[in-house]
């Protein structure tokens, strides 16, 4: 099964992709995480992508398409994958279609997560994660049970994404509206698009996605 989780930044794509990947033994392909790893490692891709990411702009399509094309050829993707953050432009979606046809693969479902704009800003500017295990938290919506200690691993160091500041968040939401939202009619026309209410609690959203996939 190959899936696309679609939605604006802060919709909960990463959270749901992790849960679905575990339950269905799929590989989560988060282009944002792949890029952050490339920036941290100082690779050529990371150096090219950093300025766009810092500004809350999209990284050029040719870099993203090359990244995904190489990644889905890896043996661990053979059982299926979940895209989280890709495609983000019509050009990326068209390139993805072409590369999947070439490999004899297809996308089974595109699941769009709908969330109110004000909720997105609050979610993005307040989120942080455990530096040890990556568990996600939020300053008001989801604090660890004991302040300063990760519920999952007991870690005491936490990170915030550099692009989760108010100014960059505004640019990221603008990029979503201008460049990524046009993918909704693209996938609707193909008949693969289904929507879930991303404002519901995490567990409910997972249930909605599972019923879409059933
Ligand atoms: P995300 O973690 O999905 O919010 O992505 C973080 C940043 O990485 C975005 O603001 C973009 O700069 C870049 N990025 C991630 N995925 C893509 C993509 N498919 N196309 C272009 N840029 C991307």
SSE blueprint:
Elements: E1 3-6, H1 13-24, E2 27-30, H2 31-41, H3 44-55, H4 61-71, E3 81-84, H5 90-103, E4 109-114, H6 117-126, E5 127-130, E6 136-138, E7 158-159, H7 166-180, H8 183-190, E8 193-197, H9 202-213
Parallel strand pairs: 1-3, 1-4, 2-3, 4-8
Antiparallel strand pairs: 5-6, 5-7
This protein binds adenosine monophosphate.
Question: Quick check: average pLDDT?
Answer: 96
Helix-strand pattern, N to C? EHEHHHEHEHEEEHHEH
Stretches where pLDDT is under 50 for at least 5 consecutive residues are: none
Structural class: alpha/beta
| Alpha carbon gap, first and last residue | 12 Å
List the total number of helices.
Answer: 9
Strand content: 5-15%
Structural notes for this entry:
By secondary structure, the chain is α/β, with parallel strands linked by helices. Helix content is 49%, strand content 15%. The strands form 2 sheets. A 5-stranded parallel beta sheet has the order 2-3-1-4-8. The chain has a 3-stranded antiparallel beta sheet with strand order 6-5-7. Helix 1 packs across helix 9, helix 2 crosses helix 3 and helix 4 runs parallel beside helix 5. Bound molecules: adenosine monophosphate. Adenosine monophosphate binds next to helix 2 and helix 3.
């Amino acid at each position: 099964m190959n899936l696309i989780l679609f939605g604006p930044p802060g919709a909960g794509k990463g959270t749901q992709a992790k849960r679905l990947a575990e339950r269905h033994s799929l590989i989560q392909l988060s282009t944002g995480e792949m890029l952050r790893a490339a920036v941290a490692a100082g690779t050529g891709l990371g150096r090219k992508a950093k300025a766009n990411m810092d500004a809350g702009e999209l990284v050029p399509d040719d870099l993203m398409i090359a990244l995904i094309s190489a990644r889905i050829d890896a043996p661990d993707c053979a059982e299926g994958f979940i895209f989280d953050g890709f495609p983000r432009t019509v050009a990326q979606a068209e390139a993805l279609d072409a590369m999947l046809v070439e490999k004899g693969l297809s996308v089974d479902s595109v699941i769009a997560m709908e969330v109110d704009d004000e909720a997105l800003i609050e979610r993005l500017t307040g989120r942080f994660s455990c530096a040890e295990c990556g568990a996600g938290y939020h300053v008001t919506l989801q604090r660890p049970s004991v302040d300063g200690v990760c519920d999952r691993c007991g870690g005491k160091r936490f990170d915030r994404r550099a692009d989760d500041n108010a100014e960059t968040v505004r640019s990221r939401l603008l990029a979503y509206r201008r460049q990524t939202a046009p993918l909704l009619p693209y996938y609707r026309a193909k008949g693969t698009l289904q929507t879930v209410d991303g404002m519901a609690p995490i567990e409910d959203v997972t249930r909605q996605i599972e019923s879409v996939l059933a």
